[in-house]
Amino acid sequence: xxxxxxxxxIQLYSTRALFxxxxxxxxRVRVFDYMNCDIMIKDGKPKIIYGIDELPExxxxxxxxxxxxxxxxxxxxxxxxxxxxxxxxxxxxILRSRDKLNSLQYLSNQGIGIPDxxxxxxxxxxxxxxxxxxxxxxxxxxxxxxxxxxxxxxxxHRTAExxxxxxxxxxxxxxxxxxxxxxxxxxxxxxxxxxxxxxxxKRTAQEGEFRSNLHRGANAIPVELSxxxxxxxxxxxxxxxxxxxxxxxxxxKRGPLLLxxxxxxxxxxxxxxxxxxxxxxxxxxxxxxxxxxxx
Length: 295
Known about the structure:
It is built from 9 helices and 16 strands. The protein is of the alpha+beta class. Strand 3 and strand 4 form a beta hairpin. The radius of gyration is 20 Å and the shape is globular.
């Protein structure tokens, strides 16, 4: 099978892991920088130009699309799908999950628990906003943040009011969320591949930090999910149409509460923490789903 990995660089850990996993299983594999892919629509036939040549015929692609260039990356993935190439992650599913507010709307409508969340373009009464999500402390989160960037814990009414007003005045899109104190600075990352949780870990923030992202120095240990946590992770991916995703959840008194579903989750933290070959699981998923190809 000829597999293309859509990534900015072969030097990225996740890209290297996928590249090696494909080679070990006897597949031909190449990395393509999706930002250097030019889209051509001519005579009703979609093409991708890479450099000066057409992109070679491939059986499947694995998108590793950065959040800051979602539009460009998704446009390339969609074009490849129109060319009949199997994508490990659907283009429209990437878009649905990257829009944090939109994805929470999809998920809550399907009975998946999320922290109480407030969004408005008209911020006039910060006291009402704070009360609507359970009062201080609250979480204020930029809709386009990643790796914990743009996520703020406001522990006083004055701080919350200042941050909300500053974001509103600078036209930032943000949500205000309930703070789940019983999670104690920890969250769960479940890695889902093709409708199955293949690895899971618990991340705990460093002392003095509430964000449990590994990029923020959090500690991680393997964890066995409860049946309800596993169902939440799998259903979240089904609702958004994602076959590969990292699902982040908080453990709360009222069950698992979903924070985010990431369509391009990093492989390093969860692979090293759990000892599971997550990249290999992704290649095996392609092997099951790309029919009629010789491996």
